[in-house]
Amino acid sequence: MKALSHVLSEIPPSATMAINDKAKALQAAGEDVISLAGGDPDFDTPPHIVEAAFGAIRAGRTHYPAPTKGIPALLEAVADKMARENGVYVDPATEVVITPGSKWALNLALAALVNPGDEVVYLEPVWVSYPPMIRIAGGTPVAVTLPDETNYTITESLLREQIGERTKVLMVNSPCNPSGRVLTEAEVAAIVQVATEEDLYVISDEVYEKLTFDGRKHRSLAAQPGMAERTVTINGLSKGYAMTGWRLGWLVGPAPILKLAARMNSQTVTSAATFTMVAAVSALTGPQDVIQAMCYSYQERRDFMVRSLNEIDGIECRCTDGTFYLIPSFPHTKRNSVELAELLLEEGGIAATPGSAFGRSTEGHIRFSIATAMDSLERAIERLERIAPRLQG
Fold first, then answer.
1. DSSP state letter for 254
2. What distance in Å separates the CA atoms of residue 147 and residue 135, rounded to the nearest whole number?
3. Contact (Cβ atoms closer than 8 angstroms) between residue 252 and residue 79
4. Which of 61, 123, 348, 365 sits at a 20 to 30 Å CA gap from 30?
5. Is residue 222 within 8 Å of residue 204, measured between CB atoms?
6. Identical fold between 6-45+289-391 and 63-118+148-285
7. How far apart are alpha carbons 293 and 263 in whole angstroms?
8. CA 240, 243, 245: angle at the middle one, nearest 5?
9. DSSP of 103-141, one letter per residue?
10. What is the pTM for the complete model shown?
11. Which CATH architecture has domain 6-45+289-391?
12. b/e for 308-327, b at 16 or more Cβ within 10 A?
């Protein structure tokens, strides 16, 4: 038999999904496993969004959408949202594409921008799917490793160290999975300076924008001077609206880029489901108080977990700016992060993601998701207190 795809053969499975799947399999087998590995909110989708979807189905909106890149009402709702909340102004007819999930939107953006051999720079710690996505698009992934000791602060000098003649795209995620960092004004300025001077495209992944804590402000890169013409913004409903299973995302950006993205969308997945687009209109234009309430609940969980983790000998945990992740470190252990994650699962019944999955700067860390009920988090702390001496062995 002839060889299968070399590119896909070299792509590892998603570490977060693999651990989450393992936790669910153990739970299904009757094991008492607390899963802190995934990024799936424990809240149900708000009722008015659900009812909008059922209403669309009852009305017969179960056929292909027209146009396939998004029903007009949703294209306009996304454009209005971007203007109102992000200060980014786009033409709904030519500069918005709706996708089945923001993950696919990222793939479309890379496919539209990257030619074989182009270098795409990303920031570590990084969401596990960025480097594989870059390779699938034919690009060469290049990491900017942000130091742990600076709390992963982005600086102009760190960015410039990895910019070369073949660099074409910079990928940025804020609020960031896994670090929970939200871009500061200084970091935004550094990204803008480098991107404009080096003539780089920027893919700005803002899917966690609704989840910022302590009054912090999310800043969209496309709203900055000189950035609209070079920035593709990725977003969706999965995280902020508790709609992971609905698979509804979008990308917005310059018309020439979005034209190519729409072309690939139509030749691959065709479109997002019509009735989920109707639900998305309800999400974006309906009441937002429930979204704010979910965010406040995550902030309460963060406060509990950060305080409790720092009270356990051998664990250190920074307070995060947003998302629903924490990445505590284990400074006194002799184990690497994979070994730590295995020990947590085998002896503590806690499923978590090893820090090494997110790059070099998070080795020695574990990522915990706090998108689960408080009673589960309390039980996780009890188990961590019990096995803490083993974690340091």
1. -
2. 24
3. yes
4. 365
5. yes
6. no
7. 38
8. 145
9. HHHHHHHHHHH--TT-EEEEEES--TTHHHHHHHTT-EE
10. 0.95
11. Alpha-Beta Complex (3.90)
12. bbeebebbebbebbbbbbbb
Would you mind telling me the total number of residues written for the chain in this entry? 393
- DSSP SS3 for 294: helix
Is residue 390 within 8 Å of 333, Cβ to Cβ? no
Mean pLDDT of 366-386: 96
The number of CA neighbours under 13 Å toward the Cβ of 311 is: 10
Please report, for the chain, the start and end positions of each structural domain, with discontinuous segments joined by +: 6-45+289-391, 63-118+148-285
pLDDT band, very low/low/confident/very high, at 393 (cuts 50, 70, 90): low
For every residue of 265-285, DSSP letters joined together read: HHHTT----HHHHHHHHHHHH
Matching residue, tokens 């802190």: 36
- Closest to 269 in 3D by CA, of 111, 138, 66, 99: 99
CATH topology of domain 63-118+148-285: Aspartate Aminotransferase; domain 2 (3.40.640)
Please report the sign of the dihedral spanned by the C-alpha atoms of residue 53, residue 54, residue 56, residue 62.
positive
